[in-house]
């Protein structure tokens, strides 16, 4: 895909955390969602502003037949403090396309300058807004929060990179990234005043009504929505879609990162479903088949995973309900004891609800808002900071990995620096029972100091080294990176330990702290930690055998949900109805150790991706693979599997990792633990070699 210049796509999106977070808005209005389907078109250094605007206007007004007199466009009006001029080019493009001058509106950084995060590619954007009423001048309602004048399409012109010091640098090649929410588009095309009145949501709202003790959905918002019932309808309908899609993708509610966000969404849904809509326990999960009915033809993984999605939601709901009841009583008791209007809810109680009962803090705010009370946010912030300080101190020793930024990547390409040849990582051989790894001498093609490419680095300076070739394995998938060090030609006694390895745009960056002056053009020798590599190879091959053995013993597909291979152990996550019995685990171990004892040959071959997918019995995970792709098989050569066209009783997977050449070097495998992470997903931890002998 690196060769693509023009792309159009549809993608599943969740906006419920980080800089772009719609979680708090869902339910309050009729057009925000945590999960939505994003329609987009992209240009990677191909077309730019004029063609992007022209195509968007043509699609909406000519192909979809949307009335042009209902549309308004916004553009970036500049920002003096940032030194950014108004995007007059885009303004003039819209005028040339026939958009009336009063409908082409300037806005500032907040509305019309797009940034995904604190750093990275960014740029001005132009948005197309639709007036659902029409027959009036609605220019004053654009970007004013009106439910009837809503943005439907955002065209982002990526022309800058936001640096760590917050300065903007022009990109060497400009790109276009547009996004149009399917839900908002369908609302326009079906002539509805609300996203929730379209056929993407009405079956869900009907199903909620059938399961709840509430009146039918009425579409009310704000003060007109007595008891917040219609808001609850919208929250539950939105959140159950998000839960279904995320759980089907392999996520589950957890305690950190994206999994914590999913946990918040689930608990918000449970609270609105049970307390506001008066639905019985289990009602939330019972909506999943309706979600599948609406989305399953486009996302078949929903259909395959429907039972597991229901189980995960039910299990998590059961865990939270007792806490919810306890917390509601605690809030009511505390509010009743507060003195007079304007009193702040004690931060210590809010913190206890969060820490001890698992209430997301936004849910605490929501429940207090319904009672006309606010928490003491200043004191709550202090408690949060105090708690975070402990975590920060624990992580103080961790050093972030260097990663080539987009400008440095573009500069490497401008200079004609070739991509790193890392083929040597696969070119080892087995001689008289011993693995021999090739020597690797390389030339320093570039040095990166974390901000820009530099010609040299001094002793003690942390940097990333780009070489013409490497024998080191950098992280691709679930295998740990290689370990080792570099020496400069002629200075063999000065070692630079390779602290980390990262891949960006075809370049492998070797992170080191220079032990001496290092310059572009220097010759270096790479020294691989062979013991560490061999241990990883053994665990990786053992993981493939485990994957095969599970399918054979359980006589079901057991889709892989994730894995990680390190020098000391392997971890494998997979879908299965419940925990394995002791007998099943023993059968899996026996199957694995039979293959190890047989000392089967491990075959690998790089083939075109489409051809690889024709192999019967091929095991894959839900991720993007390179093309061509490396196929790894046991006992039966890959070329034979390609020719057969029949299912083979052997392990065969797409894999970029490093493997043994024969299975015997694994020696032994023992499953240390197997447990369900959540209902429907199990995790196996296993060890090999002497560790397995000692455990056994």
Automatic annotation (TrEMBL):
NCBIfam families: alaS (TIGR00344). Zn(2+) binds at residues 540, 544, 655, 659. It catalyses: tRNA(Ala) + L-alanine + ATP = L-alanyl-tRNA(Ala) + AMP + diphosphate. Binds 1 zinc ion per subunit. The keyword Ubl conjugation does not apply. Catalyzes the attachment of alanine to tRNA(Ala) in a two-step reaction: alanine is first activated by ATP to form Ala-AMP and then transferred to the acceptor end of tRNA(Ala). Also edits incorrectly charged tRNA(Ala) via its editing domain. One of its GO terms (molecular function) is tRNA binding. CDD domains: AlaRS_core. GO terms for biological process: alanyl-tRNA aminoacylation. SMART domains: tRNA_SAD. This is Alanine--tRNA ligase. One of its GO terms (cellular component) is mitochondrion. Its cofactor is Zn(2+). InterPro entries: aa-tRNA-synth_II/BPL/LPL, Ala-tRNA-lgiase_IIc, Ala-tRNA-ligase_IIc_anticod-bd, Ala-tRNA-synth_IIc_core, Ala-tRNA-synth_IIc_N, Ala-tRNA_ligase, Ala_tRNA_ligase_euk/bac, Thr/Ala-tRNA-synth_IIc_edit. Consists of three domains; the N-terminal catalytic domain, the editing domain and the C-terminal C-Ala domain. The editing domain removes incorrectly charged amino acids, while the C-Ala domain, along with tRNA(Ala), serves as a bridge to cooperatively bring together the editing and aminoacylation centers thus stimulating deacylation of misacylated tRNAs. Monomer. Interacts with ANKRD16; the interaction is direct. It comes from the Eukaryota. Residues 1-696 form the Alanyl-transfer RNA synthetases family profile domain. Its EC number is 6.1.1.7. Keywords: Aminoacyl-tRNA synthetase, ATP-binding, Ligase, Metal-binding, Nucleotide-binding, Protein biosynthesis, RNA-binding, tRNA-binding, Zinc. Belongs to the class-II aminoacyl-tRNA synthetase family. Alax-L subfamily. PROSITE patterns: AA_TRNA_LIGASE_II_ALA (PS50860).
């Amino acid at each position: 895909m690196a060769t693509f210049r023009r792309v159009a796509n549809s993608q599943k999106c969740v906006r419920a955390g980080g800089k772009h977070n719609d979680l708090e808005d869902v339910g309050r209005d009729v057009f925000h969602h945590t999960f939505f389907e994003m329609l987009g078109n992209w240009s990677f250094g191909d077309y730019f502003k004029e063609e992007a605007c022209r195509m968007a206007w043509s699609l909406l007004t000519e192909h979809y037949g949307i009335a042009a007199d209902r549309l308004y466009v916004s553009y970036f009006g500049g920002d003096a403090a940032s030194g950014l001029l108004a995007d007059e080019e885009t303004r003039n493009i819209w005028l040339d396309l026939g958009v009336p001058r009063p409908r082409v509106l300037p806005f500032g950084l907040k509305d019309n300058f797009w940034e995904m995060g604190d750093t990275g590619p960014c740029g001005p954007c132009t948005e197309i807004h639709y007036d659902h009423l029409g027959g009036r001048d609605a220019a004053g309602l654009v970007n004013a929060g009106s439910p009837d004048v809503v943005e439907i399409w955002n065209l982002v012109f990526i022309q800058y990179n936001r640096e760590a010091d917050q300065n903007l640098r022009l990109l060497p090649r400009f790109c276009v990234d547009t996004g149009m929410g399917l839900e908002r588009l369908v609302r326009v095309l079906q002539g509805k005043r609300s996203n929730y009145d379209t056929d993407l949501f009405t079956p869900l709202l009907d199903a909620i009504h059938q399961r709840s003790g509430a009146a039918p959905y009425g579409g009310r918002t704000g003060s007109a929505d007595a008891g917040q019932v219609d808001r609850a309808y919208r929250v539950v309908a939105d959140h159950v879609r998000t839960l279904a899609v995320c759980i089907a993708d392999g996520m589950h509610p957890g305690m950190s990162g994206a999994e914590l966000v999913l946990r918040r969404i689930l608990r918000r849904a449970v609270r609105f479903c049970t307390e506001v809509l008066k639905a019985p326990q289990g009602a939330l999960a019972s909506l999943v088949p309706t979600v599948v009915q609406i989305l399953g033809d486009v996302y078949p993984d929903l259909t395959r995973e429907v039972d597991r999605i229901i189980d995960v939601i039910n299990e998590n709901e059961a865990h939270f309900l007792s806490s919810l009841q306890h917390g509601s009583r605690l809030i009511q008791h505390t509010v009743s004891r507060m003195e007079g209007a304007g009193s702040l809810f004690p931060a210590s109680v809010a913190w206890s609800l969060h820490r001890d009962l698992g209430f997301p803090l936004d849910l605490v705010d929501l429940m207090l808002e319904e009672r006309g009370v606010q928490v003491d946010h200043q004191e709550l912030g202090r408690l949060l900071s105090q708690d975070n300080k402990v975590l920060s101190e624990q992580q103080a020793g961790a050093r972030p990995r260097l990663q080539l930024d987009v400008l440095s990547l573009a500069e490497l390409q401008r200079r004609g620096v070739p991509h790193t040849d890392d083929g040597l990582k696969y070119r080892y051989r087995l001689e008289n029972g011993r693995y021999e790894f090739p020597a690797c001498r390389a030339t320093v093609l570039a040095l990166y100091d974390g901000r820009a490419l530099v010609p040299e680095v001094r002793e003690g300076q942390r940097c990333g080294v780009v070489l013409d070739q490497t024998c080191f394995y950098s992280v691709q998938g679930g295998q740990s990176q290689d370990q080792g060090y570099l020496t400069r030609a002629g200075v063999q006694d000065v070692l630079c330990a390779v602290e980390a390895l990262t891949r960006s745009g075809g370049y492998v960056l070797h992170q080191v702290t220079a032990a001496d002056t290092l310059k572009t053009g220097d010759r270096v020798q790479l020294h691989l930690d062979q013991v560490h590599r061999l241990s990883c190879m053994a665990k990786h091959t053992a993981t493939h055998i485990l994957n095969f053995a599970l399918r054979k013993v359980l006589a079901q597909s057991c889709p892989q949900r994730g894995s990680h291979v390190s020098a000391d152990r392997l971890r494998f996550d997979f879908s299965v109805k419940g925990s394995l019995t002791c007998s099943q685990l023993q059968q899996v171990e026996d199957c694995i150790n039979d293959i190890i004892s047989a000392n089967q040959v491990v075959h690998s071959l790089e083939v075109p991706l489409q051809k690889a997918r024709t192999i019967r019995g091929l095991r894959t995970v839900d991720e993007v693979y390179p093309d061509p792709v490396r196929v790894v098989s046991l006992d039966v050569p890959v070329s034979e599997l390609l020719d057969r066209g029949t299912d083979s009783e052997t392990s065969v997977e797409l894999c970029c990792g490093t493997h043994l050449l024969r299975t015997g070097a694994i020696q032994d495998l023992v499953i240390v633990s197997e447990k369900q992470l959540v209902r429907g997903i199990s995790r196996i931890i296993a060890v090999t070699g002497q560790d397995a002998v000692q455990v056994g």
